Amino acid sequence: MTAQRAKACPEQPLAELLGVSTGRGVPPLQNVTFSLRPGEAWLISGPNGGGKSTFLKLLRGELSPTQGKRSYFLGGQPRTSAVRAMKALALVSPEQEAFYLTRDWVQTVADVLLSGYSGDTLRLWEASPEAAARLAEVSAQVGLQALLERDFRTLSHGQRRRTLLGRALMPRPDALLLDEFTDGLSVTARGELRGVLESVAAKGVAVVLVTHRPEEAPQLAWKHAHIAAGKLIVDAPPPALPRRPAAFELTAPAQEKGRVLVQLEQAEVYRNGHHALGPITWTWREGQHWLVTGENGCGKSTLARLVAGEFHPALGGGVARPFLRRDLLSERQQHIGLLGAELAIRQRRDWSGREVIGSAFGGTEGFAHPLSAEQQEQVEGLAERLGAADLLSRSAETLSQGQLRRLLLGRALIHQPKLLIVDEGLDFLDVAARKEVLALLGEMMAGGTHLLVIAHREEDAPVGMTHHLKLEAGRVVGLFSTP
């Protein structure tokens, strides 16, 4: 909605919930009353599994209420149907990202953006001149011009978030609903897209932001609400802003003499024909714990999957893992733990939490072997340590992103691996969960696990990191160690 339209009917809410409850969601939402008016900005906080993502689906119309009343005022008309709301209230969520990543056919960035223009899930038609003009406008607005012909599946996590924001903006929505939007974005990308959101909001578009990182929110006149245990409290106090830790002190690395764990020699990786990494030469030795940083699309996640053995170098490059007795898939799965965004997307949504963790024993993602009594005991003990014991019997499709992330960390840790690779592992976790995970990672390091953390925030790495690798455009541009 434009600023002119917002001024024309300021008293009418775009969407209104009156005493609404849902039958879905764990926990289900209960007796929710909420109004979203043109130009408003709402910041929604709350713990993992409290019902925040369910609330966004309910507000937009993806989920129907079981009691209470939901209504809209869109296009100058009162409405009870959510058909128009699905386009007028545009959503950016991890579930959308998962949908496009799991398709078996190519969807370019342009295809994804154009699908949003008509409100379709996929682009099923040729772009009209008006759609093409809007594509050019939005791609410039969110910085996607150079990526329009790229297969969405080859993008970095942050680039995918940027694309989904562009998709949401294509139909000129009345409101933007953003679910943990800043997770996966580099510092530069957060600054750029914060400016986009502030510009959009200045034109009268309402913004609803669900976040565990309020310090990264755009500078808007936020109203605050809090959701926990399925209950919404409006006009809640603003969430506390965390204190940032001191930055790592770094120096040029001295000559290292520890036993080599992983050696990359002129390694390059191509993904669906796109050059994603390299050539890179790098050594990971015993006693080293690495922090890897860089802008979105620089190759960080590709590096993680190369080290773990999910990707292989192009002809002419090499990867050696001399700490393994035999460098076979079964050996890598036993001794290298990996937690990343793609792993979460690949999980079967009908699995129980117990199957998500237990699948690590067979190294599977499409099915889970029956667990022995000893394996059951290991799973339950680790889930207890992760604060996820109550999730073991839950279906993965009922879990929040943060709850699923805890289970996937358990999957990566179940073998007590020699190497643990954590790729943006604290994304989607609430403040309490982040502290618990950081403490657990510190314990793993003290127990002999070597850690590689990929993060856009230094506070997302535990105390004790010894080395820092910085990537840019697929190449190493900095190697440092802590004094």
Automatic annotation (TrEMBL):
* Keywords of this entry: ATP-binding, Nucleotide-binding
**UniProt-recorded name of the protein:** ATP-binding cassette domain-containing protein
Q: Which GO terms describe its molecular function?
A: ATP binding; ATP hydrolysis activity
Read off the Pfam families from this record. ABC_tran
InterPro entries reported for this sequence: AAA+_ATPase, ABC_transporter-like_ATP-bd, ABC_transporter-like_CS, P-loop_NTPase
Q: Which SUPFAM superfamilies match?
A: P-loop containing nucleoside triphosphate hydrolases (SSF52540)
Q: Where is the ABC transporter domain?
A: 12-254, 262-481
Q: Which domain of life is it from?
A: Bacteria
